[in-house]
Amino acid sequence: MKLIDTHCHLYLPEFDSDRNDVIHRAQESGVDKFFLPNIDSSSVNSMLLLSAANSGICYPMMGLHPGSVKDDWLREITIIEKYLFNTTGLKFYGIGETGLDGYWDKSYVHKQKENFQRHIGWAKELHLPITIHSREATEECIALIKENKDENLTGIFHCFTGTIEQAHEIADMDFYLGIGGVVTFKNAGLDKVLEQIDLEHIVLETDSPYLAPVPYRGKRNETSYLKLIVSKIAVIKNLPLEEVASITTRNAMRVFQL
Ligand SMILES: [Zn+2]
User: Fold this and answer.
1) How many Å apart are CA 183 and CA 181, to the nearest integer?
2) At residue 107, does pLDDT exceed 90?
3) Do 43 and 239 meet the contact criterion of CB atoms below 8 Å apart?
């Protein structure tokens, strides 16, 4: 069984004491690729170091997280853009993570939109998939993607927790739903959505160190827990584990153009 974690922040300090063990455990459980979304200028170095030390295993993306959009946005986005358009041969496999976050702080909504729009432009220009963070803003994110959709623009609605209608809209735009630990939470309602969405539109993720699946909910998440997410989806879809793994892995390879 081969799995891909399409969204994990294994470069964060939460893994400083046992990062290699975490990667090793994940590999033992079947994960052979890890996609690393960036957060902001402060996370770039550790992300690039991890990717360089694990070439062909860890794949970096470049972007500015909506939660890091503050008064110094212009300074941040300039740094991110410089990395993205570097002339040193440094390769990024996606744009992100970016998007909108309506949960924490409403005072930067306009800047978050401008930030998201900038990332959509890069994704189209560079023909790279975009990883979208859409917490409490799924409708707005769908609308912005719809407005900007062309035949090249694709990507992942990471940590999707929306409605069936939204899931269909995303699939119809040729985007993928990133499904992680939330699928194991009681009362999250994501099982009802997944029952009606074809596996062709789904990729797997952990969002480590956040959003650990049951029975680790509330604790540090790590990529080896991806197997708990696959198992849950296999139960929901009433399909063998291996089939869920192979379809979602193929989807991940497709969206990241590998
Ligand atoms: Zn993330």
Assistant:
1) 5
2) no
3) no
- Measured in Å, residue 97 CA sits from the centre of ligand 1 at 7
| pLDDT for residue 103 | 79
Domains and CATH numbers, the chain: 3-255 (3.20.20.140)
Q: How far apart are alpha carbons 226 and 179 in whole angstroms? A: 10
> Rounded CA gap, 23 and 27, in Å?
6
Report if pTM > 0.85.
Answer: yes
Calpha distance 127→154 (Å, rounded):
9
Q: What CA–CA distance (Å, rounded) separates 207 from 146?
A: 25
Ligand 1 centroid from CA 13, angstroms: 14
- Ligand 1 centroid vs 38 CA: distance in angstroms? 8
For residue 138, the CA-to-ligand 1 centroid distance in Å is: 15
